[in-house]
Amino acid sequence: MNTALRTRTARLEALPEWALWLRLSQTPSVGPQTLRQLLQTFGSVQAVLAQSPQALQQVLSHAQVQALQLEPPDWLSLCTRTQAWLSQAGDGVQHAVWTWADAQYPPGLLALPDPPPLLFVQGQLERACNTSVAIVGSRNPTAQGRENARAFAHSLQTAGCCVVSGLALGIDGAAHQGALQAANAITCATVAVVGTGLDQVYPRAHQGLARQVAQHGWLLSELPPGTPAIAHHFPRRNRLIAGLSSGVLVVEAALKSGSLITADMALSQGKEVFAVPGSIHSALSRGCHALLRQGAKLVETAQDVLEELPPHLQFESHDAAPAHAQPQGATQHALCDALGHDPQSLDVLLVRSQLALEDTLVALHELECRGVLARLPGGLYQRIGA
Q: Which CATH number fits domain 3-69: 2.60.40, 2.40.50, 1.10.150, 3.90.1530?
């Protein structure tokens, strides 16, 4: 071994193993498949980085060998940021970097064609995420869609499922919240797969939610600390959401939606896909209806999902949504009948119910206070639950 190679080997041995994985993952033209070939040939990341150019040419092209000899320009700064992030763990929340070599690395992600060489994870990492269901959907859902996501997540977590989603506004946030409402001190309640480094939260409105997830589950990213919110990172993280899950439940989605990308990825991985049907008049139902036409399972309750999952799960409630208090009085009954389950304006409700304006306004206020309906932008109202 020549002097330069000995010096480089000694330097590598002084670094934590995750830093070497980060070094390889940041090398241009060395993707997951090439990295697998290198590991199969040389045995470890330390051994790969200690090889001479001549030895590397057994596996790599000349251009790849040249790239591997050059230190990635951002590598040392990434190592510094990662070490700082690791040192911030505390208050019962763990920070870790998992690589393919670690037993904690989720097997479902290893089965992907392009598994991330490193995962950055924080939360209750001693709690296993075994059987899990992803819940995804629109960032701008209806009130009913938001409630459906929350209720399905609550029921699935109660039954022992870990709920996986993407921490986005709308359906994702409602799914995490529903799982957290059923959280216990033993299991991983929910996993948030994010499209930034874990030293920041996107969207900013979910900073509190992210802290709650870390207290009862995991936050997970393939991106190192310091990585900001960049548009093309979010579609890529969808493959991780699908890979972590036994099935994907789409609650509300337009025809051109990231949720359908997640569903397609789940199908390509041989996973179950579930969809909640909706109104034929709603654009947010069209994505789910398209999935149903393609063979997704129509679900109305969490039991419909659990039937397709491992049999050891125990289901404790057969309603996807909580049992809201039933309307009281003839006026409220008439108003609920007039509402149906689609968003309606006040004018439409007056015509359908034949109620006086004053009685209608009073009844709408009472029903809203009791959680039977929700007020939507544009002066619309929508019934929630069954």
A: 1.10.150
